Amino acid sequence: MGLRNVTLRRFSISLGVLLLLCATLWMWAALQKRESTLAIRPLSSNISMPDGFSVWHHLDANGIRFKSITPQNDGLVIKFESSDQSAAAKEVLDRTLPHGYIIAQQDEDQDLAPQWLSRLRDAPRRFG
């Protein structure tokens, strides 16, 4: 009876450790998904901002899924779950939008240091 209890206890502990390891790997994989952003801006002030509905229609017609389309400053920001979706959307929008727009792709996992440095450099400073 003693050997059977020891074996059952080892099996239970091993199963618990395996389940904990699987849960940890699953959480790590879920956290590794990084968003990707596509920004659309007009080249000049005499060109109007693109309509979010027409952008949605072009992406939907080509089977490209996105998380959100948000107006921001003088353009649109589209968020995707992956950089592959963002790259496919850029190709579609390059073909379907009229000329006069800048379409820029940015992954969220890029280094934030250059962005902060440019903000600090461009910010007005007050001394004294």
Describe this entry's structure for a reader.
The chain is an alpha+beta fold. It is built from four helices and four strands; from the N terminus they run αβαββαβα. It has a four-stranded antiparallel β-sheet, with helices on one face.
Key words describing this protein structure:
alpha+beta, 128 residues, 4 helices, 4-stranded antiparallel β-sheet
Q: What strand line-up does the widest sheet have?
A: 2-3-1-4
**Helix run count:** 4
Largest sheet: 4 strands, antiparallel
Radius of gyration: 24 Å
Low-confidence stretches: 116-123
> Secondary-structure element sequence?
HEHEEHEH
Helix/strand-derived class? alpha+beta
- Helicity level: 40-55%
Number of strands: 4
What portion of residues belong to β-strands?
15-25%
Q: What is the terminal-to-terminal distance?
A: 83 Å
The rough form would be described as: rod-shaped
What is the average per-residue confidence, as pLDDT, rounded to a whole number? 80
Describe the structure concisely:
The protein is an alpha+beta fold and 128 residues long. Helices cover 50% and strands 20% of the residues.
List the helices and strands and how they pair.
Blueprint (H helix, E strand, L loop, with lengths): L1 H30 L4 E7 L9 H10 L6 E5 L2 E6 L2 H14 L4 E7 L5 H10 L6
Antiparallel strand pairs: 1-3, 1-4, 2-3
